[in-house]
Specification:
It contains one helix and 22 strands. By secondary structure, the chain is mainly beta. The longest helix is centred in the first third of the chain and has 30 residues. The C terminus is likely disordered.
């Protein structure tokens, strides 16, 4: 009987010891500090330019639309569609002997009348377009129109022909048009014809908003924000731990951001391992490190 009690007691001791060990191991597993994987990137000195972006279309600067001022009959048409004409050329002759004259140099884009046909007042008879004198016309909403000024340089990209041009704003409308509750103004920029550009082609216009040179920059993807929406980055602290570092930012171009304080040129900051390094565009962005975060 004594032997049986001793045997049971020994079994309970072993079982209790194992339970304590398992409890310690589970607690350690769940409560131990996380050992997260980070990558690092160096701040560097660079320049940032921020732009306003607008959409527009290529248009002709010079266009003549010839309308009938009264009921007339056309007796002779002296041109045809696609023909080049000069200012002063006789386009049409009426049955009364009146001559309708070209006022600009250009190409006949439309003939909307036939010989010996009667037309009513206000009828569009012929249209002439100068395809050599081009402009880009774009819309600007009321919140951005004050950023524009005549003479300001712009970068124009025409995707259809893969052209990038520079030009200056020639004109900004003084009266706006309301569309969906927002007032829009129009602006125009002269561009040079190179033989490939056609009227109606879409264009993307960029105007310089802000520019900063010789500043410390970081990729925007490594910037974090706290509960008060204040920006910070992760830096190495004492005992190989990651700490939060508050920063003051300036302008950004959608990829990089100006760091006015909190990080210096060449200083390393850290970001999570699951952020793709190619998105950071810095050569140092691919090196793996492991640190215990605070």
């Amino acid at each position: 009987m004594d032997k049986k009690r001793k045997k049971n007691k020994r079994a309970w001791i072993i079982t209790g010891t194992l339970a304590v060990l398992i409890s310690i191991m589970v607690s350690y597993y769940f409560l131990r500090p996380a050992n997260l994987s980070y990558r690092k990137v160096k701040a560097r000195t660079g320049s940032i330019a921020a732009y306003y972006s607008f959409s527009g279309n290529v248009a002709s600067k010079k266009r003549q639309s010839v309308f009938s001022e009264k009921a007339i009959q056309i007796s002779r048409i002296n041109t045809e569609r696609g023909q080049e004409v000069k200012a002063g050329d006789v386009l049409l002759v009426t049955a009364d002997g009146d001559e309708l004259i070209a006022e600009i140099d250009g190409e006949v884009a439309l003939i909307n009348v036939q010989e010996n046909k009667q037309v009513m007042p206000g009828t569009l008879l012929i249209e002439i377009v100068d395809y050599n004198e081009l402009e880009v016309v774009f819309k600007v909403d009321e919140y951005d129109v004050n950023a524009l000024s005549t003479g300001k340089e712009a970068i124009i990209h025409i995707p259809a022909v893969k052209k990038e041009l520079k030009g200056n704003i020639r004109e900004i409308s003084k009266e706006g048009r309301i569309e969906n509750g927002v007032t829009f103004y129009t602006a125009s920029i002269d561009i040079k014809q190179d033989g490939s550009i056609r009227t109606g082609m879409s264009a993307e216009i960029r105007l310089l908003s802000e520019k900063a040179e010789n500043i410390v920059v970081l990729p925007m993807d490594v910037i974090r924000f706290d509960d008060q929406n204040q920006p910070y980055v992760l830096k190495a602290g004492e005992k190989n731990k990651v700490i939060k570092q508050s920063i003051v930012t300036g302008i950004n171009d959608g990829i990089y951001v100006e760091i006015r304080s909190g990080v210096t040129d060449g200083e390393e900051v850290f970001y999570e391992n699951d952020l793709k390094p190619e998105a950071l565009l810095f050569p140092e962005g691919g090196k793996n490190i492991r640190l215990n975060p605070r």
